[in-house]
């Protein structure tokens, strides 16, 4: 059974409706993890540089009183002055902790450079952009590949001299981002989360596949069971069971054409015939009858020994019933069977009801129409069809081949019934 034909395609719905959002969510998760890890790395890098530079400045100021006085009393100097006195600058430049930087600028709050160190020719581009970068977010910022590739420029505010003075530092360094325990923990957590989510999606998909196989097998078993049951009970009973509740099958009234088929003189044949021959004969009769009924859109209600009851519904029910009856008679009488059959056909209102309680029940048709069809079948001779006149449509082929009207009195009924008879070879 293909998944398209399944009554409930669980796997197909999962792959079409659930799996794409899950994969999209996993992709968004990976992108957010990457963005968060990158942001965290940058923040850690900036924070480490800030602490490092604060330590350098504090150390230089503690060892150089002149430079310390210049920082503390910077407002006494002309703000238009481009540079500070050279001696303090040279002292700070010689600080060993600044030798790893390509470009170093320390800027006082009033905009004047406290120190400028250029260990690379590309620092000219840094100096041109310095006024803009120095006014960036006070939380600190990292600009990658500036002033050239593989160089990271940090703009960060420093609090020096016991946190009383702010200096803006702009430094450039060609070193990789530093990873610490927080980075490692974050990456480990992200990897575990990704692994768990991926595993959950794979497990869910596998479970859906297993569930789909079970559903397929259950459906196949139910279809096989229904087909098996349909061979022993009528199609109407199967349909009624499918729509009924647990309390029982519903009863209903409808107009149907009933067809009874019964083997003539079967009791005398059964007394003398071999058991295997009897079974073979009944199987042939039943096969011919059920085939003719099915071809003509009827439904075999029950098979009881050598008797068969079939029903026909719909606008063309009378024509279908008569076609099935004629086909049954012609096929059985033309064959070399030890016995032939008699048929009765009648149309009218019937009651579809469940008979019985407890574990054993039967769903069948009841009513006056069924009883009269049975009586007509009993009165029919070998190879004959007795049909109520109302069952034969006027101006039809059956109106030509059925004999004249007769009035019969059925056993158990007070009102006479007008009937017509069909004999083999009339067509």
Task: Provide an overview of this structure.
The chain has 427 residues and is an alpha+beta fold. The protein has helices spanning 10-63, 65-72, 86-93, 123-133, 181-230, 235-243, 266-272, 275-295, 317-334, 368-379, 397-401, and strands at residues 103-107, 113-118, 141-144, 152-160, 165-173, 252-263, 298-304, 307-312, 341-355, 362-366, 385-388, 406-408, 417-422. The strands form two sheets. Strands 6, 7, 8, 9, 10, 11, 12 and 13 form an eight-stranded mixed sheet that branches. The protein has a five-stranded antiparallel sheet with strand order 2-1-5-4-3, with helices on both faces. It is rod-shaped.
Reconstruct the topology from this structure:
Layout: H1 10-63, H2 65-72, H3 86-93, E1 103-107, E2 113-118, H4 123-133, E3 141-144, E4 152-160, E5 165-173, H5 181-230, H6 235-243, E6 252-263, H7 266-272, H8 275-295, E7 298-304, E8 307-312, H9 317-334, E9 341-355, E10 362-366, H10 368-379, E11 385-388, H11 397-401, E12 406-408, E13 417-422
Parallel strand pairs: 9-11
Antiparallel strand pairs: 1-2, 1-5, 3-4, 4-5, 6-8, 6-9, 7-8, 9-10, 11-13, 12-13
Helix pairs in contact: 1-2, 1-5, 8-9
